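User: Show me a protein chain along with its predicted structure.
Assistant: Here is one chain, sequence first, then structure tokens.
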Amino acid sequence: MELLKGKVAMVTGGTRGIGYAIVKKYLDNGAAVALCGSRQETVDKALEKLKAENADYKVIGLCPDLKNPDEVEKAVKKVKETFGSLDIMVNNAGISARDSIYDYKSEDFSGIMDLNVTATFHCAQAAARVMKEQDGGVILNTSSMVSIYGQPAGVGYPTSKFAVNGLTKSLARELGKDNIRVNAVAPGVTKTDMVAALPDEVIKPLIATIPLGRVGEPEDVANAFLYLASDMASYVTGVILSVDGAARS
């Protein structure tokens, strides 16, 4: 069942982890995808891996500076020129930190806000302009469980994700009249490269806080992004969908 057959998606932060899982899930469901990363090297590596799995995937790679609105506009234009439209924009690129407030540097806080919030705004704005012209589309943002519960250190990251939630809910109300749905997915602890590398003494206490008894897989999160991008969610907008195993930490 190809839930996104004929659709065109752009996924930022798509070279690894959750972003890569979203790209592959969309491709497997019939979409054409523009995969975006921060470096050409990682973009090329992700494209090579995808093509090795299925040479028929309709996928291109881009590496715009998401903090530069002009580069974002050019990237969106490239996607539309290549595939004919832009139906789904996934704002997944982001960075994290766990510094104590006593040691947090102002420039580090600004760096997180610039990529996690300002770049998300740039991408949503550029996508919305295209989607309005073609009478609709879907904008999806990656939030986090810490946007709901906070975290004990590294205040910049949860602050940025609280902002992403506000952006999501506000744009859903603003863009509904243009037939553009806006939602976010808030993953919990997920088995990315970083989490997979953690020692047992760190992972086991984390799992103990999760009622389902395991950390999430990238595919678990990608499934939520698939649902929200598809017509099955045609009346769903302004939602922050938690995918965290009911973890509360």
